[in-house]
Write a structure and sequence with these properties.
By secondary structure, this protein is an alpha+beta fold. It is built from 14 helices and 16 strands. About 35% of the residues lie in helices and about 20% in strands. Strands 7, 8, 9, 10, 11, 12, 13, 14, 15 and 16 form a 10-stranded mixed β-sheet that branches. Strands 1, 2, 3, 4, 5 and 6 form a 6-stranded mixed β-sheet that branches. A hairpin with a 5-residue loop joins strand 1 and strand 2. About 45% of the residues are buried.
Length: about 450
């Protein structure tokens, strides 16, 4: 750790960096930031920087407001400043004044989940495909959303705004040592996808916070607005974040078994079964907003049912094609995540569910190769196919009785999420919508 700190201090001095942004996440996954001068960097590493945690959603209770931010030097990046020059950025862990990890820090939740896996000799790797929309302007009440183009899936859109935007975003991420596998136009008008190269889950979660900030910043600098909202336009695809998951042990991918069906080991099959068995319990973390369920139940390849398959893009869990001679490529693709999830909490929940499946040796049911949407309700019942929660209320009901989620999140985060989501649902339920007015006003 000290070697990392020395490297950061030296880089800040050599590059003449003017200021340092210290980033952290609230429980919802919103990026929070404070700025310090390079002169205070030593203090930040050694003592932490004090903040009022009670002002941050879910971070602490009002009677224990003092918290400390301690930057993780391994996350140090240099990014361009809006008006020229360069700024240093680091992701922080949150601590109590007596130097204990804060129970409510989402990064701590994921760290603890990974530590439980590491105690079994396991490493958890993730590879996300991040979708978002690019609009001409931010949302304004009474003004329709205007995408920057009318392109579709993989279209080469010959418009300067979109093509320059993706190029600029990729360049900035690579400059920050966040490696992009590829990017392309997605299925909706103005919709884009950036895929990050696989990495350990904590690094991926940190990189996702940075990606959102970079994408939004570049969009604003070009007079546009980027949205990671799960379903911003009802007639177009939602913003998913399909994520590939794999477990390694001693440098070997333990999801791989030569000669097995789809190259999947028994461990991988138990892991998938865990994802399926606990899917309703963790859906409030992978799909945390009222709007998330409009994506899940909006068809257009979003998964609505708890099934797995190989060549089935309507499945919650898909087993992608792998190269038979390359065991490291065996993985499972979780298709339920949306781009607005808190990655720390979502990855912790997915890992916990998969490990539970391995520990208890959950049996994996038959995979579904038919598009689940095209089956009748009777056919789905005969096949034992259960639905995901159809709205946030049902997700809350499944979450609040889950011992697994209470264990992986800890009491403080678990209780905050319940309070926050109940509040969101009640606020949504009380609204009178345009749809209601159109259909009922003249009765």
């Amino acid at each position: 750790m000290e070697r990392h700190q020395d490297s950061v201090l030296r880089q800040v001095e050599e590059q003449g960096i003017d200021y340092i942004r210290l980033w952290f996440s609230d429980v919802v996954g919103r990026l929070k930031s404070i700025v310090i001068s390079p002169h205070d960097l030593d203090k930040a590493f050694d003592e932490g920087i004090g903040i009022d945690g009670s002002a941050i959603e879910g971070l602490t209770r009002s009677y224990e407001s003092d918290m400390l931010l301690r930057p993780d030097p391994s996350t140090f990046r240099v990014m361009g400043a809006p008006r020229g020059g360069e700024a240093g950025v680091m992701i922080c862990d949150v601590f109590t004044p007596d130097s204990e990890p804060a129970a409510s820090d989402p990064r701590r939740v994921l760290r603890d989940a990974l530590a439980r896996a590491e105690a079994k000799g396991l490493e958890f790797f993730t590879h996300p495909e991040v979708e978002f929309y690019l609009f001409e302007r931010a949302y304004e009440q009474g003004v329709g959303l205007t995408p920057v183009d009318q392109g579709g899936y993989f279209d080469y859109v010959q418009r300067v705004d979109g093509s320059r935007f993706r190029r600029d975003a990729m360049r900035e991420l690579e400059r920050m040592n966040i490696h992009v596998e590829y990017s392309h136009h997605e299925g909706g008008p103005g919709q884009n996808e950036i895929d990050l190269r696989y990495a350990d889950a904590l690094t991926t979660a940190d990189n996702l916070l940075t990606l959102r900030a970079v994408v939004k910043g570049i969009a604003l600098s070009e007079g546009k607005f980027a949205s990671f909202m799960p379903k911003p336009m009802i007639d177009h695809p939602g913003n998913g974040m399909h994520t590939h998951l794999s477990l390694f042990q001693n440098g070997t991918n333990i999801f791989h078994e030569p000669g097995a069906e789809y190259g999947l080991s028994r461990t991988a099959r138990h892991f998938i079964a865990g994802l399926l068995v606990h899917a309703r319990e963790y859906s409030i973390l992978t799909n945390q907003f009222v709007n998330s369920y409009k994506r899940l139940w909006g068809e257009q390849e979003a998964p609505s049912y708890i099934v797995w398959g190989h060549n089935n893009r309507s499945a919650l869990v898909r087993v992608p094609f792998h190269k038979p001679t390359k065991g490291t490529s065996s993985r499972v693709e979780f298709r339920g995540l949306d781009s607005a999830a808190n990655p720390y909490l979502a990855f912790a929940a997915l890992l916990a569910a998969g490990l539970k499946g391995i520990e208890e040796e959950y049996p994996l049911p038959e995979g579904a190769e038919d598009t689940v949407w095209e089956l009748t309700e009777r056919e789905r019942k005969a096949m034992g196919i259960e639905p995901l929660p159809s709205d946030l209320l049902r997700a809350i009901e499944s979450f609040e009785t889950s011992e697994l989620m209470a264990d992986v999140l800890g009491e403080q985060v678990f209780e905050y999420i319940l309070r926050d989501k109940r509040r969101e649902w009640e606020g949504y339920r009380r609204q009178v919508t345009d749809s209601e007015l159109r259909t009922t006003f003249d009765i």
